[in-house]
Write a structure and sequence with these properties.
By secondary structure, the chain is an alpha+beta fold. Helices cover 24% and strands 27% of the residues. It has five helices and seven strands. The longest helix has 15 residues.
């Protein structure tokens, strides 16, 4: 499968990113942004071995370790770390041909990941809408990984015939909101005070992006 940026997405082999992915350029980007994920130098070095590809089953522990960092930092709704067994079914449900999990790997090490998941699973009226989630390892922030994963997910969703992408995030996750906005997402909804994290209430944002139309599906 090839997306519109000419970047191949396959199940197992690692595929080098073209220059458009090594140096992600988003409309309206400000190099002085406070986002924790944008590289101040403007992109990955030309010699970078960073690659985005389909996640493999034996990478679930690495994917989960990165997610549990977000749990500890209170950037997600889970309040306790998850174990590998807790997520095996979740991984198996993400068929690469329909709802892939993508990883950004460097020399065999997973630095970040993103997933496309069914929105309101089982309700066929929402079959052309997917939820996008993305997480980057704490020691790999400010390298453009989150931006590259998100852009790759957008192109993947478009190539799979999706029409809308939805991202759901906590009100306190300012860096993620900025990342979404740079990628063209806009706020579609807000649920105030629906989460209680360590005794503090916060809201839930819904960000959305149209990636296709009925004529293209």
């Amino acid at each position: 499968m090839e997306n519109s940026l000419g970047c191949h997405i396959i199940r197992s082999a690692m595929v080098a990113l073209p220059s458009a992915w090594r140096y992600p350029a988003l409309a309206g980007h400000d190099s002085q942004s406070s986002s924790s994920d944008w590289p101040p130098s403007g992109g990955w070095p030309a010699h970078s071995t960073m690659m985005i590809r389909i996640a493999q089953p034996d990478e679930l522990p690495s994917i989960l370790a990165i997610y549990n960092q977000a749990v500890a930092a209170r950037r997600t709704g889970d309040l306790s770390p998850l174990g590998v067994e807790d997520r095996r079914a979740w991984f198996a449900e993400h068929d690469p041909d329909h709802y892939p999990i993508l990883v950004c790997a460097e020399a065999g090490t997973v630095r970040g990941w993103c997933s496309l998941s069914p929105y309101r699973k089982g309700r066929m009226a929402f079959r052309y809408t997917a939820e996008v989630s993305y997480y980057v390892a704490e020691d790999s922030h400010r390298r453009g990984i989150g931006s590259a994963l998100l852009l790759h997910a957008i192109e993947t969703a478009r190539s799979l015939g999706m029409r809308s992408l939805v991202a759901i995030l906590l009100e306190t996750n300012l860096a993620s909101r900025k990342l979404l906005e740079r990628a063209g997402f806009v706020q579609w909804g807000f649920l105030p005070d629906v989460a209680d994290i360590d005794g503090e209430e916060c809201g839930h944002y819904y960000y959305g992006l149209r990636v296709g139309s009925p004529e293209e599906s």
